Amino acid sequence: MRSDLAKQGFERAPHRSLFYAAGLTPEELDRPLIGVVNSHNDVVPGHVHLDKVGEAVKAGIRMAGGTPLEFACIAVCDGIAMGHLGMHYSLPSRELIADSVEVMAQAHALDGLVFIPNCDKIVPGMLMAAARINIPAIFVSGGPMLAGRYQGQDVDLKNIFEAVGEYRAGRMSEEELQELEQAACPGCGSCAGLFTANTMNCLTEALGMALPGNGTVPAVTAARLRLAKRAGMQIMHLVRENICPRDVLTEAAFENAIAVDMAIGGSTNTVLHLPAIAHEAGVPLPLERFDAVSGRTPYLVKLSPSGPYHMQDLDEAGGIPAVMAELLRHGSLRGEAQT
Asked: What pairing do the DSSP bridges indicate for beta strands 153-155 and 148-150?
């Protein structure tokens, strides 16, 4: 085990003493040490529930014979940061996340990593870290927010942005605006439309770095917690087989992610994030590749903001596996990619 560097032999007695100080037993130290990278905080609605997701992940790791060691990771909400000085800090946080995860994983000789992201820059930052460190890793996101309901219609954050203009133009009262802003985002999860967060969580699945359902199973469901447990169990298989991110993040995987992106009408920010992840994995991904894949990929899914449906609807229709199956039949996917 990689963690033997920090725990085996008489010279590592001080190291073991410090692990014991954290409450670990000798039996736990004998098992693979799995880092659980959790971006939980009380600021970001997509992350407020990740403590529960983390507990499920750790349960899965223990069930499969590993020792989970959780550590925190920063997370910025682009929606809250938008329109003021805060937006200067959003994209740089991606690099800070990648760097800080690298520091923790390498400094403590961890055997594997389970990443728990959800929102815009956190997902690519963690994917960059996974590709850079290249030890066994798996992702389980916090899941999408459910759509809100207002005057009998499904609504999400997009409707609030539009309502600001409606109010400014005198077509909506202040009372109506306040009612809508309290209805549009009904609870935890990444914003219900196909914005950057949900797009990147879906593409993590398409890349092969997460289990089916990662991008679409709603945040508030028990199915999300079961998915987290399965991810915790799956990391132990990856560790035992020494399956690492660069075994998965191949040229074919990135082309498949682009194809899924085009098929679902995902965020244009993927053009910013996928090349950065590919760079860490040592895979060339020029802008022209997006154009080439786009030209042969049908547009299949009309989710908000480009259509009337939301992530829960895509999940009920079969999620990303259904999209990928359709693309495979169409000849738009490279079937040799490992998932």
From this structure: antiparallel
